[in-house]
Specification:
The structure holds 2 protein chains of 2 kinds. By secondary structure, chain A is α+β, with helices and mostly antiparallel strands. In chain A, the strands form 6 sheets. A 6-stranded antiparallel beta sheet of chain A has the order 13-12-17-16-14-15. In chain A, strands 6-2-1-10-19 form a 5-stranded parallel beta sheet. Chain A is built from 15 helices and 23 strands. Chain A has helices at 13-24, 62-72, 79-99, 131-149, 215-222, 252-255, 271-275, 285-298, 318-336, 391-413, 422-440, 448-462, 469-486, 500-524, 557-560; strands spanning 5-9, 28-33, 49-50, 113-114, 124-125, 152-156, 158-165, 171-178, 184-188, 191-194, 227-228, 233-240, 247-248, 259-264, 267-269, 309-312, 345-354, 357-358, 371-373, 545-546, 549-550, 563-569, 574-580. Among the domains of chain A are: 235-351, Succinate dehydrogenase/fumarate reductase flavoprotein, catalytic domain (Flavocytochrome C3, Chain A, domain 1); 422-580, Fumarate reductase/succinate dehydrogenase flavoprotein-like, C-terminal domain (Methane Monooxygenase Hydroxylase, Chain G, domain 1, Up-down Bundle). In chain B, 33% of the residues lie in helices and 15% in strands. Chain B is built from 8 helices and 9 strands. In chain B, the strands form 3 sheets. Chain B has a 5-stranded mixed beta sheet. In chain B, strands 6-7 form a two-stranded antiparallel sheet. In chain B, strands 8-9 form a two-stranded antiparallel ribbon. The longest helix of chain B has 22 residues, at 229-250. Chain B starts with 6 loop residues before the first strand and ends with a helix. Classes of the chains: A alpha+beta, B alpha+beta. At the A-B interface, helix 1, helix 3, helix 4, strand 13 and helix 9 of A face helix 1, helix 2 and helix 3 of B.
C-alpha cells in the first residue's frame, strides 16, 4: 500500500515534531519552509520549557502545572487540551534529553530547573538561555535522519501560498512558490498541516523573526478556515527596544532573580514587588507589561521620562549569570554595548506571541477537512495569556498530536475522497500565478515596506497593551485604508528570479487582512481578560478615570467566557466575529489576582 | 546653519543571478544610533535608490531572527565573514562594503546557497540514533562538565563563517569545513550518541574529512558563537588517528 503523503508547512518546533511523528507512523512528509528549517523562529525562545519534573523538593505536581496554565490564561484555554499537554510534558523532556539537547544540569548531572512567571514552583527546564535553539536543533537533526532514511522530502526556500480544495471543500494540497526560481507549483497531499508560527510582523517591530508574518494563516483564513481568539496578543514585558526589531530579554532574567524598577522620588521603586507582593517580578507577562506601561505612560516614571524601565541583574554573581543566562547577556552586550552584569538593562514591553490563531479542535483539525494547524499558528492551550516557557511545550506537544492524527485521518478518509482532476488543480495554481504576475507589474507610488511600517505603528497604537473601543474603531478604519493603498504599491523589482519584493507584497496583503481580524475581535470583546485589557469610555467617548486610575472593563464570564471565532467574509473582505463554547469544566473559573497567593 | 545630516555609505556587490557578472552599487542612508547592517538594508528596501539617483531593485539577502541565533544573515562585511544583524554601523569603517560569501554559490546579491553544509551534517551523522520519539525510560544522567562543552558546540548555527574564512574550503579542496566536522565531535560526547562514534570518525577519515584541515585557525577567529573550533578539531583529529591505527591493527 502506498504511504500516506502529508504536507507539513513550517519547520519550527511544531512542524518538525509533527514530521517525526508522521514518519514514525509510516507516513511520508513533504516539508515546506521558506527558510532552512534549522533557522526557524523557535530558536529565538530563550528561557525554557515547562514540565513538572519535581526534582527540587517542592512537591510540584502535574495538577499544579495544569492549574497555573489555566489560571494564567484567565480561564479561556480549553482545559482538556491543556491537561493533555501538561501530562505529556515530562515525557517530552526525556525525549529531548535522549536526542541530545544540552540542558543545563545540576552538579549531580540531572536536569536543572528554574523559576518562571506565574508559577510558584521550579518547573522550567532550560539550556542556558538558548533553550529554543537547542530544542529546535534536536528535532532538526532527527528529521535530517529521516531525510536520509527516505521519509522526508524538504522544500526549503519554498513559500506556501494557498491550499487547494476539491469540489466537496476538502483540502487536497498546497500551491507553493520557489523563492529562487519563482516557479509556482501545486503539491498534492492526503493532509496538510500548517505549522507556520505567529503573526508578530503584523505589529512591525516585535520580538519575532522577520519571517513571522502570519501570512499563511491569513491565506487559509481567506479560504474559509476560522480563526480563534486573535485579539489575545502577548506583549512581553522585557525587550530591548530597537528600530529594526525589539530583542527579547528572557523572563528567565526574573526567574533567576532579576528585578524590575524605576526611580521614584530619587529612590529605586521595585514596582512589581510592590504591586504584586505574592508573585513580585514573576507575575505573568500580561500583568507585568501593563504595570510597566502604567509606570512609564500614565505615571511618567520611565527612565529619563522615556518608555524604558530597568531590569536589574547586577546584584547576581557574574559566573552564575554566565552559566544560566550567558546567551541573552551576550545579546544585550552586543546590541546595546553595555554589560548587564554591571549595569541594569533598559527594557520595555514588546509584541511577542499570539495566543490565538487558526481555530482547531483538540486533535488539531481545522474546520476545513484535510487541513490541520499546529504550534503558535493554532489557537489552543494558552487562553487569554500564555505562561512563559509554555510555548516551547505547546509547540512540541501540538506536533505530537497533529502528526499522528494526520496519518490516522488519511488512513480513514483518503479512499472516500472524491476525484480531483489535474485541470482543477491547475486552475488553483493558475490563480496564484496570475496574482503573482500582477504583483510583479505593480507600478503605483506606495512602497510596501513603508506601508508595513505604518501598519505596525497603527497596531501598536490601538491594539496593544491598552485598548478602547474608540481606538479600535479608528484602527479598523485605518486598516481598511491601508488595504486600499496596497493596490497602489509599486515594485522596483519586476524580475523573475529571487524576487523578494514581490513575495513581500503578497505577504503584506495577508498581514493587513489578519490585522483586521485581530482588531475586530478585540473590538467585539467588551471585557478585560488576560492580554486583552479594555478601558471603559463614557457617553462622550472619553476614557473613564476614577481617583486618577483608568477604569478597565472587568472580566465578564457570563458574556465572554467563550472562544472568539472569526470568519472571513469574502464579499466585504471583513472579519465576522462569533462566540463558541469550549471545555472549562475541570477547573472552575475564579478571579485572577497575582497580588495574593493563588487559591484553588 | 542647519547641521549636516549624518549618513551611512554602503558599497554593495550585487549579482542578478547565479551565472551573471557581479557589479557594485552605492547607497547612502540616514544614520541613526544602534543601526546595524540588516537594519540598513531594510532602509534601502524602503527607498531603493542609489547615490547617483538610480531607482533599482532592492538588495536581496537572507535574514530571520536579527539577534545572532539563526545564522541566516552571514555575509562579508568590510572583508570579514560575519552576521549582518549584529554588525553595528558605529563599529564599521565607511563606506561599508558588503559582499556575498563566495565560498558558497551566489543565488542573487548577498543571498547564497549553503545547502552543502546541511548535506555535510548528513555525512557526519550529526544526530543521536534514538529508537524513536516515544518514551523508553529515563534519559541517562550526564556529566555536567561534558554537558557544558556540548552546550558550547551546540550553539553552532550553520552560518558558514568558518567555511568562508577557511583557505581549505573551496574549489581547490573538498574539505567540509570546521562547523560540520565539529558537530561530529558534539555527538561523540553524548552518552547515547557516542555509541556511533566510530561511524562518525570513519566519515571524517574519507575525502574532504579532517585530514583536509590545514590548521590555518581562521575558523576560530571568525566564529560568531566563539566556539573553540580549533580545540575540537584537534581532539577530533586525535580521535580519527586513534581510530585509523585501531583499524590497521585489527586488519
Amino acid at each position: 500500500m502506498a504511504k500516506n503523503k502529508i504536507i507539513v508547512v513550517g519547520g519550527g518546533l511544531s512542524g518538525l515534531m509533527a514530521t517525526l511523528k508522521i514518519c514514525e507512523a509510516g507516513g511520508e512528509v513533504d516539508l515546506f519552509s521558506y527558510c532552512p528549517v534549522k533557522r526557524s523562529h523557535s530558536l529565538c525562545a530563550q528561557g525554557g520549557i515547562n514540565a513538572c519534573m519535581d526534582t527540587k523538593g517542592e512537591h510540584d505536581s502535574i495538577y499544579e502545572h495544569f492549574d497555573d496554565t489555566v489560571y494564567g490564561g484567565d480561564f479561556l484555554a480549553d482545559q482538556l487540551a491543556v491537561k493533555g499537554m501538561v501530562e505529556a510534558a515530562p515525557k517530552l523532556i526525556k525525549m529531548f534529553d535522549r536526542m541530545g539537547v544540552p540542558f543545563t544540569r545540576t552538579p549531580e548531572g540531572v536536569l536543572d530547573l528554574r523559576n518562571f512567571g506565574g508559577q510558584k514552583n521550579k518547573r522550567t527546564c532550560f539550556a542556558g538561555s538558548t533553550t529554543g535553539q537547542q530544542l529546535l536543533y534536536a528535532l532538526d537533526e532527527q528529521v535530517r535522519r529521516w531525510e536520509v532514511k527516505g521519509g522526508v522530502t524538504k522544500y526549503e526556500f519554498w513559500e506556501f501560498v494557498k491550499i487547494f480544495k476539491d469540489k466537496n471543500g476538502v483540502c487536497r494540497g498546497i500551491i507553493a512558490q520557489s523563492m529562487n526560481s519563482m516557479e509556482i507549483k501545486a503539491f498534492k497531499a492526503d493532509v496538510v498541516i500548517l505549522a507556520t508560527g505567529g503573526p508578530g510582523q503584523v505589529f512591525g517591530r516585535c520580538t519575532a523573526s522577520t519571517i513571522c508574518n502570519g501570512s499563511a494563516v491569513s491565506a487559509v483564513y481567506q479560504q474559509g478556515a476560522k480563526i480563534a481568539n486573535p485579539e489575545f496578543i502577548q506583549i512581553h514585558p522585557t525587550a530591548i527596544p530597537g528600530s529594526d526589531k525589539n530583542r527579547l530579554m528572557s523572563e528567565a532574567c526574573r526567574g533567576e532573580g532579576g528585578r524590575v524598577w524605576v526611580y521614584r522620588d530619587g529612590k529605586p521603586w521595585y514596582f512589581l514587588e510592590d504591586m504584586y507582593p505574592a508573585y513580585g517580578n514573576l507575575v505573568p507577562r500580561d500583568v507585568a507589561s501593563r504595570a510597566i506601561f502604567k509606570v512609564c505612560v500614565h505615571m511618567d516614571l520611565g527612565i529619563n521620562h522615556d518608555r524604558r524601565v530597568y531590569l536589574d541583574l547586577s546584584h547576581i554573581p557574574a559566573d552564575y549569570l554566565e552559566r544560566k543566562l550567558g546567551g541573552i547577556i551576550e545579546i544585550y552586550t552586543e546590541f546595546v554595548g553595555k554589560d548587564p552584569r554591571k549595569v541594569p538593562m533598559e527594557i520595555f514591553p514588546s509584541v511577542h506571541y499570539s495566543m490565538g490563531g487558526i481555530y482547531v479542535d483538540r486533535k488539531h483539525f481545522t474546520n476545513i477537512p484535510g487541513l490541520m494547524a499546529s504550534g503558535e499558528c493554532d489557537h489552543q492551550y494558552h487562553g487569554a495569556n500564555r505562561l512563559g516557557a509554555n510555548s516551547l511545550l505547546s509547540a512540541a506537544y501540538s506536533g505530537t498530536v497533529s502528526g499522528p492524527e494526520a496519518v490516522k485521518w488519511a488512513k480513514e478518509n483518503v479512499s472516500k475522497l472524491c476525484e480531483i482532476t489535474d485541470a482543477e488543480i491547475e486552475a488553483a495554481r493558475k490563480e496564484v500565478q496570475d496574482e503573482y504576475d500582477k504583483i510583479r507589474q505593480m507600478n503605483g507610488p506606495e512602497n510596501a515596506h513603508k506601508l508595513h511600517q505604518e501598519m505596525g505603528e497603527i497596531m501598536y497604537e490601538y491594539v496593544s497593551i491598552e485598548r478602547d473601543n474608540n481606538g479600535l474603531d479608528i484602527c479598523l478604519g485605518k486598516l481598511k485604508e491601508i488595504l486600499k493603498r496596497w493596490e497602489n504599491i509599486g515594485v522596483t523589482d519586476h524580475g523573475n528570479w529571487a524576487n523578494q519584493e514581490a513575495m513581500f507584497v503578497r505577504q503584506l496583503r495577508n498581514m493587513i487582512i489578519y490585522a483586521m481580524a485581530i482588531t475586530k475581535s478585540a473590538r467585539s470583546r467588551d471585557e478585560s481578560r488576560g492580554a486583552h485589557a479594555k478601558i471603559m469610555l463614557d457617553e462622550n467617548g472619553k476614557r473613564i478615570e476614577k481617583d486618577g486610575e483608568l477604569q478597565f472593563y472587568p472580566r465578564n464570564d457570563e458574556k465572554f467566557m467563550f472562544t472568539s471565532v472569526v470568519s472571513f467574509d469574502a464579499a466585504t473582505e471583513e472579519p465576522v466575529v462569533t462566540y463558541e463554547e469550549f471545555e472549562h469544566s475541570l477547573i472552575k473559573a475564579r478571579p485572577r489576582n497575582y497580588a495574593v497567593a493563588k487559591k484553588e | 546653519m542647519a547641521e549636516q545630516k549624518k549618513t551611512v555609505k554602503f558599497i554593495i556587490e550585487r549579482q542578478d543571478s547565479p551565472t551573471s557578472k557581479p557589479y557594485t552599487q552605492e547607497f547612502e542612508i540616514p544614520y541613526r544610533p544602534a543601526l546595524n547592517v540588516v537594519a540598513s538594508l531594510m532602509e534601502i528596501q524602503k527607498n531603493p535608490v542609489t547615490t547617483d539617483g538610480k531607482k533599482v531593485a532592492p538588495v536581496v539577502w537572507e535574514c530571520n531572527c536579527l539577534e545572532k541565533v539563526c545564522g541566516a544573515c552571514m555575509m562579508v562585511i568590510n572583508g570579514r565573514a560575519r552576521q549582518a544583524c549584529c554588525a553595528l554601523i558605529d563599529e564599521l569603517e565607511q563606506p561599508i562594503r558588503l559582499q556575498p560569501a563566495r565560498t558558497f554559490p551566489v543565488i542573487r546579491d548577498l543571498l547564497i546557497d549553503r545547502s552543502v553544509m546541511f548535506e555535510s551534517l548528513k555525512r557526519v551523522q550529526a544526530w543521536v540514533e534514538v529508537d524513536g520519539s516515544w518514551e523508553v525510560k529515563d534519559a541517562p544522567i550526564q556529566n555536567p562538565y561534558t554537558a557544558t562543552t556540548a552546550y558550547e558546540i551546540s550553539h553552532c548555527m550553520t552560518c558558514g563563517c568558518c567555511l568562508e574564512a577557511c583557505p581549505n574550503v573551496g574549489p581547490q579542496s573538498d574539505f567540509i569545513g570546521a562547523s560540520p566536522s565539529v558537530q561530529a565531535y558534539l555527538f561523540n560526547l553524548h552518552p547515547l550518541g557516542k555509541f556511533d562514534k566510530e561511524k562518525r570518525l570513519e566519515a571524517l577519515m574519507g575525502k574532504g574529512g579532517i585530514t583536509s584541515c590545514g590548521n590555518s585557525q581562521n575558523c576560530v577567529e571568525v566564529c560568531p558563537k566563539n566556539i573553540k573550533l580549533t580545540t575540537y578539531l584537534a581532539q577530533l583529529n586525535r580521535d580519527v588517528n586513534k581510530h585509523a591505527l585501531k583499524n590497521i591493527f585489527n586488519k
